[in-house]
Give the backbone structure.
Amino acid sequence: MAAAPSGAEAWIAPITNVSDFIWGGTWNGEALPWLSIGEQPIPPMTLILLGIGMYIMFGLRFYPIVKLGSAFKGLFSSRKGEGDGEISPFAALSTALSGQVGTGNLAGVATAIALGGPGAIFWMWITALVGMALAFAEGSLAIRYREKTSDGVYRGGPMTYIMMGLGKKWTWLAIVFCIGTLFSALVTGNSIQANAIADGMNELFGIEEWIGGAITAVLVFIVIIGGIKSIGSVAEKIIPFMAGAYIVMAILALALNFGDLPATFVLIFDGAFNPQAATGGFAGAAIMLAIRAGVARGLFSNEAGQGSTPIAHAVAQTSDPQAQGRMAMLGTFIDTIVICTMTALVMLTVQGDFTAGGQAVEHAWNSDLEGFAMTSGAFAAAFPFEVIGVPVGTLIASIALILFVFTTLLTWSYYGERAITFIYDRVPGSTRGGEKILHMIWRVLWCVVIYLGSTLDLTLVWRMGDIANAAMALPNLLALLLLSGVVFKLAQGQKDAGPTHIADTPEEPNEY
């Protein structure tokens, strides 16, 4: 008689079931009759995310795509802030990007391909394009509705635009969002990232995972102790440089394998639309797997609609909601259309000495490698010459992962801090001093979780991450839908569009 599973193993099956229902529309691996069309399951979260995203995209009259050029133009003039706020618009974008660009770009893309095949990349692109509309809505609302503390600090995010844009009767929705944010912060913003950075340190330097977790926790604490200004300062120095270096490395790898690129794009489009590739028990199973993997990993990477990035954009020194909305949508474009695509193309194109089940295969995505090891292996095949006994491709990919993940840990600590602060401010008698004590407790807890998360089971953590993303995204997507009329007016240049629900309160902030 087989022994009953224990520890993490006992949790994997039920958590996988919940994750599969949210993102795949299945339960116990089977399609649910009431959530299927022709035995093909309909993923609830995919339907909600793409449905609301398309509605806002149409309502904006494809503003994110039409205005993409002006968004890039504004990138070069956003180094200095003009207006109230804590950090420059560029630093706010860098901070948001530091939360977006992380494990999802290097390990998450590999996971998407492993779960849904090359076709998942196409659906990741679609998620990003639709996500640009959601990101614009989030960024513009974050500036239109934000609060100021009694000592003059600006802050905001979905919890604030829910309260100020929809009114006090929607406080429950803001609280639900904050609870989802805390869950998502500790799982996707912390544990998954800590796990990845510990693996990167182990592969690069041979450091044990728990030691890598301890080192990371100390370094993160040194930065986050200074709050959002310290986080923004670090992010705007690391992210542009590291993202640029990573993109250049990927372009070089693809240039060396240029002849195989056409076949790669055939793989992507064929996997996205060819029902004959189905491996499940119903027609179109492979397509649904591709959609589910692409949308889930796309959201994990660019966070559009999830409600995290507007927390960073809310502190930008600007009084123009439309301008910061463009910054926000640019973050989604850079994260997924550029960086995730580079990662995917390298894994699908570069040939090397890989194995699967003991048999030789040409590409990393066909091999037994998983997660970041698949990404690292593909880059190592492109740049095999060694430095200090490590292939240059592995060296650069590992350094990129470590820096991307490090900055993600910084930014998500602030997201969680804002969520727990908002909940605290609903308690009678809350004060600014109490907030600061709570911030310190949260920052210490954050670093303890980094240490613990560095050695967690990866399967369990990724599945919990899918659930955490949905728990945070659903209340935010409802708020975006309810405030969509305001978003459409903000896109037309009406800076004060929509009602402003405020009332005096003895708690922080003094006016809400």
